[in-house]
Amino acid sequence: EAKATEEMLNQRMSAEIKAIDEHWNEKISKMSSQQTQSISGKVPLLNQTVNELSNQPRKSSKFATPKNRPAEHACEKIRKDLRSIGLTYITGTPIYYFWLYTPKKNRNFCNGALIDKRFVLTLSDCFLPDTFIEVKLSFSSGPKGIKAIHRHPDYSSETASLHNIGLIELDSDVDYAHDLYPVCLYTSQLNPKILKNRYSELQIVADTECGKKYTSTEVCVRNLKHGSVSSGEPIYVEEIEYPIYKLFGLVGKKSYDRKPYWIGKVFDHLDF
Known about the structure:
The N and C termini lie far apart (99 Å). Strand 2 and strand 3 form a beta hairpin. Strands 7, 8, 9, 10, 11, 12 and 13 form a seven-stranded mixed sheet that branches. Strands 1-2-3-6-5-4 form a six-stranded antiparallel barrel. It has helices at residues 2-55, 70-84; strands at 97-101, 107-116, 119-122, 134-136, 144-151, 166-170, 184-185, 194-196, 201-204, 218-223, 234-238, 245-251, 261-265. The longest helix has 54 residues, at 2-55. It is 25% helix and 25% strand. Residues 107-188 form the Peptidase S1 domain.
């Protein structure tokens, strides 16, 4: 009897296990079928979306990566142009001042930087009044005619500390020489530890040392050596890579005797 009972229980257990297996196999089969239908329905739509996106013209990013910025391409062209005239070793800082002439030969002295064969970067303040027709970049070169003056679109003389940057477009190319060559623009968002003007190294200090800050593009600095600075004067980053100097910013207002002063970064205006 015991043996018969054991056989009966084994048969019943086997039947139950078989029924459970069949039930779950059927359920899994249905689930797999539904997933397959779902996936087969979604994949073509996804492919269509990807294809549509890939066929659409790409929109430019507001913040281009450094290597894609026009300023980086311009710097590479500057390197080639300088090497082509035999200027392979830089001994001094690029030009930092120029004269603007009116039709009556009245002139205005300004600070700024040559950044291309046809463009000079300076403060928009320098263009007041805007009757200038010529610019002279060095003692050894003749004057160049002005094709156009480009102020920052958001610049206002009433709030001169904001967007105080502009370009002078020349009507002909500047002939580069050992004492007249352009400077590349600094394209990193990070502030370097040490900056430089034509006389001294500079140290970035706390904003509170310069007083009220009008815009996030301003950086407070102090000369490490004695010496005054003038508004619009270029501030450089010195790098190992040729041509060594890159333009970090322009002095906002003149300062004397190592007093801290504001400079406006060019990085925030690279797409201007």
